[in-house]
Amino acid sequence: MPASVERQVVDVEGHRLSLSHLDRLLYPATGHTKAQVLQYYARIAPAMLPHTAGRPASFVRAPEGPGGESWVAKNPPPGAPGWVPRVPVRHREGTTEQVVVDSTAVLVAMVNLGAYEVHVPQWTAAAGPDAHDRLVLDLDPGPGADLVVCCRVAQRLRQLLDDDGLTAHAVVSGSKGLHLYAPVHPASGRAVSGYAKELAARMMGEHPGLVVVSMARVERRGKVLIDWSQNASAKTTAAPYTVRLRERPDVAAPVTWDEVVACRDPDELVFGPEDVLDRVDTYGDLLAPLAADATRARLP
């Protein structure tokens, strides 16, 4: 995928793709072009796909990059190839056909159509929304707080989860905060959400000056919001390894607990595409246990 041409026809896993607007500057702050973002996704796919495969994806689309118009899309982007797998998903507003990102070819095809940010639910299409197989907590710092404070909160949440027999894995969100995942034995969205809400309330009871569970912005100053609601069957979370549509192409990247404990500066845990590729070359997929059936524990 040369970065010096405007259009290139490539073969990805036996599928012919015409990659367009390769010279488009998506991230002026860092100089990243569309070609470079496509190259990142093509290379990161082996690590990313275990966390998206089988799950109905939604996308944040922004064909001209974060500086242009963006929107959340559940339906396949116009121009999506016919071979891209789709599954029906029932929503309040009706049933939609959603893409399943289960191969490098699908991932590259979606990114080529401006679907740069991938989001998935905590359940697979095969099992359905009544069988969530992972729990997620989104730690979002309010004004006056930052990723360092999120890391402090995450350490205590890790202990609480461990006390309940669940193993937490940390992923910097690529935005301002931190995602904590735990693999769970399949349970209903209501059960997982209920447990996550109770866990967040426990944490707020312990540290009322540090943690909040209310979305109200006025209550969040200097505190970390523990957003437990992303465990609802209708909600999605930015997929591990996705590039975020912000000023910089920061990535939702798995991190070690040693890194979380040692964090003293938010910039220490900010990773661009090239950083993440280097990390995967060095460490492999730090989040691999999340996709392993053997690691799933029942909710208490």
TrEMBL record:
It comes from the Bacteria. Residues 33-286 form the DNA ligase D polymerase domain. One of its GO terms (molecular function) is DNA ligase (ATP) activity. Signal peptide: none annotated. It is an enzyme of class 6 (ligase). Its EC number is 6.5.1.1. Keywords: Ligase. Gene3D superfamilies: DNA primase, PRIM domain. This is Bifunctional non-homologous end joining protein LigD. It comes from Streptomyces olivoverticillatus.
